Amino acid sequence: MDRPAISTSEQSWREQLPILRELEQKILWLSAWTIHNANHIRPSRDGLKVGGHQASSSSVASIMTALYLSVLRPEDRVAVKPHASPIFHAIQYLLGNQTRERLENFRAFGGAQSYPSRTKDADDVDISTGSVGLGVAMTAFAGLVQDYVELKGWLPRDLKSGRMIAIVGDAELDEGNIHEALIESWKQDIRNCWWIIDYNRQSLDAVVSDRLFAGIESQFMAVGWRVVTLKYGKKLEAAFAGQDGEALRRWIDDCPNSLYSALVFKGGRGWREQLSRDLGDLPGMRRLLDQHDDDALGALMTNLAGHDLESLLEAFHGIPDDHRTCFVVYTIKGFGLPFAGHKDNHAGLMNLDQMAAFRRSHRVADGAEWDKYAGLGLSPKQVDDFLAAVPFSAKGTRRFHAPAIELPAKLPLSISPRMSTQEGFGRVLADLARIGGALADRIVTTSPDVAVSTNLGGWVNRRGIFNRHPREDVFSEQKVVSAQRWQMTPAGQHIELGIAENNLFILLAALGLSHSLFGARLLPIGTLYDPFIQRGLDALNYACYQDARFLLVATPSGITLAPEGGAHQSVGTPLIGLAQDGLAAFEPAYVDELAAILQWSFDYLQRDGSGEDKPGEWLRDIKGGSVYLRLSTRSLEQPERKVGETLRDEIIAGGYWLKPPAPGAPLAIVAMGAVMPEALEAHAQLIDEIPGAGLLAVTSADRLNAGWHAVERARQAGQSHAVCHLERLLAPLAPDAGLVTILDGHPATLSWIGGVRGHRVRPLGVEHFGQSGDIGDLYARYRLDAAAILDACAAACLKN
Ligand SMILES: Cc1ncc(C[n+]2csc(CCOP(=O)(O)OP(=O)(O)O)c2C)c(N)n1
Ligand SMILES: [Mg+2]
């Protein structure tokens, strides 16, 4: 489907050029002033440099003016390169979505954020940025998610499909995750996506290599992107059309990035010297040099398309369709500022004198710095009328709320006497796929090439693979017998990714914000092997930072996947589960626990309580969040029991007594996940000697820990009777009881439990890389077997 023609006619944007040029300067001014105020005017209490990026901001002032004040429509979504945050906030200030107070407090507590943040900023940020590269990729995946919900008919009725736009720093293309996303953009045939590269040829430390961009265009084209290069502005184009103009064009085209940057910094005189030397023999060039004074010559030679609103608007408004498009826009870092082009300008700040001169050049009176109208050659009414009619903000701010999907009272569950949690997960999903209903319809799964090996096969067979171009499963058409049926249709509910964990997490970020970005609630489930969480960890953190909602199923895990060896055996991931904000981590041992956790998760994912943490607000139960399940392929004998309400609540709170201790018991084993049989075996062996010893099954170290920290905060805030789940669990033990903690992962995940009531702890777990073997070999070598537990119990019983 082609997008509807953009309503701004060529005539109307050309008529608006004079006003847009004025506002472009206002936006540049406000961004520079906001940073200056934070660094030089606002008093500092700690002497720390505040920072902000005047040069990086000025580089995109024109691009963002063109976009926000003319090109964008309310349904479009934008990821702004992180260090252009002041430009974004300045635009929102003009549009009435940002307060002066927040700008005055830029980079201060409660003020506008350093980098655009969906969760911390108040001015309608679509996509957070900060860790370079991630926001860029997110726009591609947002395009895919928009297709997913649109083709299912779930976009709200008054919402058109929009463009997902990234304003990209050129050095962001050094990040590998961008190239991973590009390949996926081709596989998924992503549309409605624009990447606008701010090609200022500078990164943080340096001027970028001349060779870097030589291949960029062909890279994009190889994966089906349209590339639009915007190099020179209208003034330079006119000069090129004059006598000897072609020589001038060739000269600039061949000018090394570093020389061009240095000349930009030196200004008109520098240009004159260099051009006289290199091209002064040509009559046309001699005339051009004579006709321009130094200032005019500097302005001409820096007239790149990225600072020429007419060139930008022509290009942006001229895109006729929804094909994915990359704009390579030539710009100058620090354009319009005294350090334009200087290679060290990334963190450069104008000093007081420079700022005073800059203020005068913008005709802003002393004291009128925050005034929206100051220094403009427009009346306040002209400004107000124009801004009130800006299409982008015509519908106000653009956050959606989608109602929660109703959940069945119970998930389908058929437990075999022996099974693994991974198998249990696959079975719940396959049964859901078969039975159907609202929950099953809104689940969307995704996996980086490990759908089958993480037990999603049954689900995919029934629900199919999503692709906007229907494709039959060739093996099945050819009657080749296979357990997997991989038919692709727009109705499919699994998005199969290539092996790139960054893509998995960024897609989960986009899927997990569908309710807010596109008004359509999804319940995304991503699966991968547990150790490879670390491959995409920054992207996972990024997804959580944006408060995206998803279920992450990581399996298999630990040294328990024994023969696979050390490269596939995760050790530190339980600590990630403990520490990652926005992600509730569970590691169940048994499948009935898993079912209770899944049931709870589908509700938790959809909670949307907002606001700050209050003392006494426990865990994130009001706000909701995402969920991480660390599962295993180890088949365990399943307990015969019915999970009633109490046990279910305990499983969700993080643990329960599998073997309750007697009052005053001197010892308990605290075990999590796949090592439960060893814990049970050790417990059975020692119970005669230490009657009353308990065995605590931990289902979530994360939630036990969060509960404890929350209750501590609550007590410090005066709620003296507050008690957490873990304190209640440990209450029957003797005050000087010993605890032996054990998991297939880093021991620090559980060893903190000793601090809750002052018990002595002997922690077991894995601290070193694994290796191939069977479970028996490895549990013995890494001290996870019953013998190790008994040794630790003996040590715990020694009272000193
Ligand atoms: C993952 C990551 N690594 C490092 C940084 C620190 N950093 C911030 S901006 C920047 C360079 C940006 O250069 P470019 O993208 O060209 O933007 P420009 O400032 O030129 O607009 C770096 C290295 C970061 N924000 N994220
Ligand atoms: Mg750059």
Distance between the termini: 74 Å
- Provide the β-strand percentage band: 5-15%
Which strand order does the major sheet show? Answer: 10-7-11-12-14-13
Ligands, deduplicated? thiamine diphosphate, magnesium ion
Q: In oligomeric terms, what are we looking at? A: single chain
Mean pLDDT over the residues: 94
Continuous helix count? 34
Largest sheet composition: 6 strands, parallel
The coarse overall form would be elongated
* Broad structural category: alpha/beta
Contiguous uncertain segments of 5+ residues: 1-6
Gyration radius (Cα, Å) is 30 Å
Report on this structure.
The structure is a single chain. The strands form 5 sheets. A 6-stranded parallel β-sheet has the order 10-7-11-12-14-13, sandwiched between helices. Strands 1-2-3-5-4 form a 5-stranded parallel β-sheet, with helices on both faces. Strands 16-18-17-19-20 form a 5-stranded mixed β-sheet. The longest helix has 32 residues, at 10-41. It is 41% helix and 12% strand. It has 800 residues and is an alpha/beta fold. Mean pLDDT is 94; it is low at 1-6. Thiamine diphosphate binds next to α2. Residues 169-171, 200, 202-203, 333 line the site of magnesium ion (MG).
What is the topology?
Layout: H1 10-41, H2 54-59, H3 61-71, E1 77-80, H4 85-94, H5 100-104, H6 134-151, E2 164-169, H7 176-187, E3 193-199, H8 216-222, E4 226-230, H9 234-241, H10 245-254, H11 257-266, H12 268-279, H13 283-291, H14 294-301, H15 309-317, E5 325-330, H16 352-361, H17 380-388, E6 418-419, H18 421-435, H19 438-442, E7 443-448, H20 457-463, E8 465-466, H21 474-477, E9 488-489, E10 494-497, H22 501-511, H23 514-517, E11 523-528, H24 537-545, E12 551-554, H25 573-579, E13 583-586, H26 591-604, E14 626-630, E15 636-637, H27 645-653, E16 655-659, E17 667-672, H28 676-686, E18 694-698, H29 701-716, H30 725-730, E19 738-743, H31 748-751, H32 754-757, E20 760-764, H33 775-781, H34 786-797
Parallel strand pairs: 1-2, 2-3, 3-5, 4-5, 7-10, 7-11, 8-9, 11-12, 12-14, 13-14, 17-18, 17-19, 19-20
Antiparallel strand pairs: 6-15, 16-18
Helix pairs in contact: 1-3, 1-4, 1-15, 1-16, 3-15, 6-7, 6-22, 9-10, 12-14, 18-20, 22-24, 25-29, 28-34
The protein binds thiamine diphosphate and magnesium ion.
